[in-house]
Amino acid sequence: MPELPEVESIRRGLATGVTGRTIARVQVLHPRPVRRHPFGPRDFEAQLTGRQFSEPRRRGKYLWLPFADGDALLAHLGMSGQFRFAEATAPLAPNTRVLIDFVDAADQLRFVDQRMFGGLAISEGGAVLPPEIAHIALDPFDPAYDLNDTVARLRRKRTGVKRALLDQQVVAGIGNIYADEALWRARLHYARATDTMSRQSAVQVLTAAADVMAAALEVGGTSFDSLYVNVDGDAGYFERALAAYGREGQPCPRCGSPIRRESFMNRSSFRCPRCQRLPRAGHVRA
DNA sequence: ACTATATCCTGTATGC
DNA sequence: TGCATACAGGATATAG
Question: Taking the model in full, what pTM does it have?
Fold first, then answer.
């Protein structure tokens, strides 16, 4: 599942592959990934043709590929979206949804997405920051990210700490994997009530999230299955460094207790039952 | 205003 | 063997 480190790895690959290039042709093979374009797939194709890319940007899990004319191609990978460069004559991978050919390059950029939770859209005037995503918070890698502001937003919420970490309006970029890893590092239970957390505890969990995502980025992100690969088709190597996520029954790297898997928010949460105990009554919020 | 939940998707794994 | 069900989960619409 692409979260901040995976999306940033992809952004870097796209920067090399698209910056300065001009679109010769776009082919939408499945309508769903362009569902946010109000005028349909054919219009989407036509509107993109002839545009020149400048350097791709990212905030949280959103990517946008600015055009020299001030608009942008806004992309979210959802659960399973991939950007891949391939020779235009190469056979299409399963679930290939959109093809982009360039005037000035032999390679073709392909958007592949099995589950189609993600998608592409044209953002008018979105080159610097698409208005569609102006509502989300900064992510920890943003030069303007302010830890104190984020701590304040987190502690203002009346919810469980994992919900708050996953709330892109509190801090952007964190998904289920890195939320569980940050909670493990900070020794917090996912249901710890944010409004009972100390300032220090909030700093710790947010710092842990930033640290673990930085470490993951260094090795190309986390590839749990074939659904996350970079633009060249390569997997990331952070899976082997995960302490909690996906490690049900395996020993906690800190204390040796078997990691427990629990259902929370309609998804899996992994925690160490000893390092991350259920908070005392009154400090719990689902 | 704020928080919680249902919904969208399909390939893979598991159970009977 | 074959069919049914569970599971993966980000963002948004909607319900409360």
Answer: 0.96
